[in-house]
């Protein structure tokens, strides 16, 4: 595996004759999937990191970014390298759930806080002695699935077929779907799986279509989510198609093309910020991020994965501001205090919601963090 390191450092200069104490930089280690199946998620993350401020309350921040190639073993190697060689105070990553799950144990073993950039609820739930070192600025599946099923009920859908990744991401969505469907009076008629690197899902889609469900739910992330979407349309499926927020990026739209039109999914509000009511407190933060990001990367380039990275920065920044007056970076005492500050986050408005952490909740979002969106004419349409 080829590992690339991108190091961005904030340099603080002092005027001649002015005595300035020399403190160690806060080192933020990042392991993301810049290559492999998770690349369409990680590249916007890397771009977002490039616009992160390099200083917080006068303290220099250094970001060290490594590519784990969408490989769990690569993510583990990167975590150890970031902690052992770069002396990271906190780790961000990885981009996909399978590469993030093994990092949870490492965070607990090393007492280095981990801020997940992947979505699986199992990364932070249930909270225990291991997961207490891991946090996530991405909404949990339970909330998102609830919003999706609310839409199904309102649309009079009585049966659903499922196809999803054969990994931790897909399994967590399948479990959530199964748990929430029955109490709402919706039958699960077919369950199929596929790999993120597969090139055909025709056999699975035909089995689902034979069950004649009113809707199909696809649990996938990034561009691989386009494969079952296109296959359903090509095979003449006429029911509703639901996806997860894992497909909320331009590359999915480009790959799925016109076959994506009509797809429905629950997602954080940032994706449709301009369509939100002016009274929504999230709107201003989301639009500010959109303007910052698109000023550098072009109109239409902002995505939910940019928002996930930015909100992770907002969470970290808030915790660092609370920790820096108490402890110096580069020490176990600092890392422990930073963990505590993350857990004490209260009413933090991000581009995706309003966050309040607790010892039992290391996500902290309420229902304001989820809206329904539909793909329409190659873009995102807010579903009121």
Number of helices: 11
The percentage of residues in β strands lies in 15-25%
**CATH architecture classification name of the largest domain:** 3-Layer(aba) Sandwich
- The termini sit apart by 45 Å
CATH fold category name of the largest domain = Rossmann fold
Write down the CATH class of the largest domain.
Answer: Alpha Beta
Q: Report low-confidence residues grouped into runs of 5 or more.
A: 9-22
Report the CATH superfamily of the largest domain: Response regulator
The total number of structural domains is 2
- Going by helix content, strand content and strand pairing, the class is alpha/beta
The backbone outline, from C-alpha atoms, is: globular
| Share in helix | 25-40%
Radius of gyration: 21 Å
Number of strand elements? 16
Order of H and E elements: EEHEEHEHEEHEHEHEHEHEHHHEEEE
Mean pLDDT: 93
Biggest sheet: strands, sense, closure? 7 strands, mixed
Write the layout of secondary structure elements.
Layout: E1 5-9, E2 26-32, H1 39-49, E3 55-56, E4 59-67, H2 72-84, E5 90-93, H3 97-110, E6 114-116, E7 134-136, H4 141-154, E8 159-165, H5 168-181, E9 187-194, H6 202-210, E10 215-219, H7 226-234, E11 240-242, H8 250-256, E12 264-267, H9 281-297, H10 304-323, H11 332-343, E13 348-349, E14 354-355, E15 371-376, E16 379-383
Helix pairs in contact: 1-10, 2-3, 4-5, 7-8, 10-11
Domain Leucine-binding protein: 26-378
Signal peptide: 1-24
Protein name: Branched-chain amino acid transport system substrate-binding protein
């Amino acid at each position: 595996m080829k590992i690339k390191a991108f190091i961005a450092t904030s340099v603080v200069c002092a005027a001649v004759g002015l005595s300035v104490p020399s403190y160690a930089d806060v080192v933020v280690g990042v392991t993301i999937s810049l290559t492999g199946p998770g690349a369409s998620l990680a590249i916007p993350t890397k771009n977002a990191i490039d616009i992160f401020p390099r200083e917080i309350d006068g303290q220099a921040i250094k970001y060290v970014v490594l590519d784990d190639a969408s490989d769990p073993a690569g993510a583990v190697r990167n975590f150890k390298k970031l902690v052992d060689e770069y002396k990271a105070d906190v780790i961000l990553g990885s981009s996909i759930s399978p590469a993030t799950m093994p990092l949870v144990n490492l965070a607990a073993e090393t007492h280095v806080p981990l801020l997940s950039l992947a979505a699986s609820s199992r990364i932070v739930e249930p909270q225990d002695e291991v997961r207490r070192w891991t946090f996530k600025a991405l909404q949990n599946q339970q909330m998102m699935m609830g919003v999706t099923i609310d839409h199904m009920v309102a649309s009079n859908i009585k049966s659903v077929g499922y196809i999803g990744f054969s990994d931790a991401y897909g399994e967590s969505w399948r479990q959530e779907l199964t748990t929430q469907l029955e109490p709402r009076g919706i039958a699960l008629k077919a369950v199929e799986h596929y790999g993120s690197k597969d090139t055909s899902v025709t056999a699975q889609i035909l089995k689902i279509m034979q069950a004649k469900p009113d809707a199909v739910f696809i649990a996938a992330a990034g561009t691989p989510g386009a494969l079952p979407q296109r296959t359903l349309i090509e095979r003449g499926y006429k029911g509703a198609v639901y996806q997860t927020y894992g497909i909320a990026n331009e590359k999915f739209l480009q790959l799925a093309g016109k076959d994506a039109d009509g797809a429905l999914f629950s997602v954080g509000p940032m994706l449709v910020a301009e369509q939100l009511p002016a009274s929504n407190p999230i709107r201003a933060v989301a639009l500010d991020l959109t303007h910052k990001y698109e000023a550098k990367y072009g109109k239409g380039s902002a995505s939910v994965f940019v928002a996930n990275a930015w909100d992770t920065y907002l969470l970290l920044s808030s915790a660092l501001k609370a920790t820096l007056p108490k402890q110096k970076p580069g020490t176990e005492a600092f890392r422990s205090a930073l963990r505590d500050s993350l857990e004490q986050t209260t009413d933090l408005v991000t581009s995706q919601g309003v966050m309040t952490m607790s010892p039992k909740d290391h996500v902290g979002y309420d229902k304001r963090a989820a809206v329904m969106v539909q793909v329409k004419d190659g873009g995102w349409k807010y579903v009121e």
